[in-house]
Amino acid sequence: MIRLLLVEDNDRLRQALRTGLEAAGELRVVHSTASGEQALEYCLAQSSTTLPQAALLDVQLSGSLNGIQAAAAIRREFPRFPVVFYSIQDDDAYYRDFRRSGILSHYAYVRKSNYLLPAMILPLIRDALSGRSFIDPEIEARVQEVRQKDEGSPMALLEPNEQVVARLLAQGLTNEQIAARLGFHDKRTISRTNGQIYLAWGLNESTTDEKVARTRAALIVQHDRMIAWNEDGRAQVLDETGKWIDYDRLDA
Fold it and tell me: Exposed, middle or buried by CB within 10 Å (0-12, 13-18, 19+), for 201?
């Protein structure tokens, strides 16, 4: 008999899932809860003999932890703990959390609308227990879309504080205004941060004029894609195939 942890913040659905899953006679829900924090707390309080063998989690939960974050926290304490995620949400943030979690095996991630019936969930739990993995093709496509978006974004080359400064710079704020907005006493801190942004984006090599570099950095932020300028000042951008094309063809 499989011991299952069920994490779902809709009370009616949580009870319906529990009843349906247990009716098959293959598993027993040893604990159910509405939040990721409570799921983590429960697991940490268990011994090796009372710990659930797997968890079924909705991705969107009450509390500050979503299902993916909760599972990642549990797996830090119990490596490769089998998990099955389901969700109707189509949010980049969840796919980004899944990528960052580093979950490679002992899992399934499916759309709630496709796999909500207990008869469809049970095989996923069995596979997760066996060390296999499964991801709904629709979700896999969105995960890869988010990956390409993140890796192709110039912001990925900046540290978090530099990203904040770059966005404010693109809004037209002066160094003094950015410093005041972020609570810095010395505006030179922003100048140094700007220098790191220009270095990361190759703007320090194309110009020695800070005003030009600032304008070009703002364009990169606004388009969220890398732009390069040649010696004649012609701007080029990377298209979806990885080729440089003229900037004026960006919206063509």
Answer: buried
| Domain 2-151 homologous superfamily, CATH | Response regulator (3.40.50.2300)
pLDDT tens string for the chain (252 positions)?
A: 999 999 999 999 999 999 999 999 999 999 999 999 999 999 999 998 999 999 999 999 988 999 999 999 999 999 999 999 999 999 999 998 998 898 999 999 999 888 878 899 999 999 999 999 999 999 999 998 888 777 778 888 888 889 999 999 999 999 999 999 999 888 889 999 999 999 888 888 655 688 899 999 999 999 888 888 887 788 888 665 556 788 776 554
Q: Where do the structural domains in the chain lie, given as residue ranges?
A: 2-151, 153-249
**Phi and psi based region of residue 102 (left: phi greater than 0; alpha: psi -120 to 50; beta: remaining):** left
Q: Find out if CATH 3.40.309.10 is the number for domain 153-249.
A: no
